[in-house]
Amino acid sequence: MRTALRPARHAFGARPRDVVANTAPGALAGATFALLHPGVAVAHEKWFLDAGAYPTLPGSVLSLPNLAYLVAALVLVAVAAWVWRRRGRRGFVPELSAFGADPDRRAALYAVVPAVVGVHLAVPLLVSGVQGSLFVPNAELSGAWPYLLGVVQIGIALSLFYGALVRLTAVALAVTWFVGWVAVGIEPMLEASHVLGFAAFFWLAGRGPFAVDRLAFPRWEPPVRLARAAVPALRIGTGAGLIVLAFTEKLANLPLATAFLQEYPINVPAALGLPVPDGAFMLTAGAIELFVGLCLVLNVFPREVILIAWFPFNLTLAVFDWVELVGHLPIYGVMATLLVWEARPDEDRLWSRGVHGGPFPPTRAIR
After folding, report:
1. Would residue 10 count as lying in a domain?
2. What is the pTM of this model?
């Protein structure tokens, strides 16, 4: 009944390993990607490898060499946080205002953000609903769950796409995430913590002015005061998911990580003749992933972190094709949001103005 998102079932009959090993463009893409950001290059081993034989081992984090990589990541985060505070919480990348985007233009841009975020989540939910998985490819459903949660995911996706009854949908999305603890297990749902971030985002901000809700159900839209917490909730949920993945797929599960490299040999330094063992490569990847996740949760250089990750996230499509594309769409939506977001107190007013503005403001905004 179910055709799970697995490389063996990829279009054109090519598995990622074949692409990496047998084509020059694929090898070049994989090499460049891993060199730029190895933590993302292998961020989702469980999407492409059966992880049933490789349970997470929490105690292994406290043993060497895993502990050394964990400490290194924490030290880097501490240094980045110190620099962030010394700079008055301002990054190195210029904000939109530096390019001439005045307050009116930024408010208009913010008005589009909820629709963009909604579509980026709706598409993978539709795919998961018809493929028999929950939120992510490796969370495969069995028994009656594919029918029940498949319908729920499709319904949520359509609601987000059209912007209808979105706050109710946000509650359903959060409830479905908790139901996933029973349907597929706690660990896969913790790895998909970004889903809770999306649920909070839509509960706090709604779907914005370009939605059915704005025309048909204006009284059901959230109060203006709640919108200010929407983007931080989205950022924190995404960062939390990356932190969990850093441990469950690398720092606390080195056997899974090395098995993944045996199946998909993308240890670029070793391929170039450098003495870098698979274990060291994957632990470095985990440390980088942990660094990125913590920076997002703590709101430390968020725009810089996103720019670092943006190019590798797209370049990986040359290796892992449409499975990565669909699976990463929600993250792309978060990236786009954080790139345009200016985290300043006065910017909250523009964000609320954009989300609750438009030709037909919600009833609560009128009051």
Report:
1. no
2. 0.83
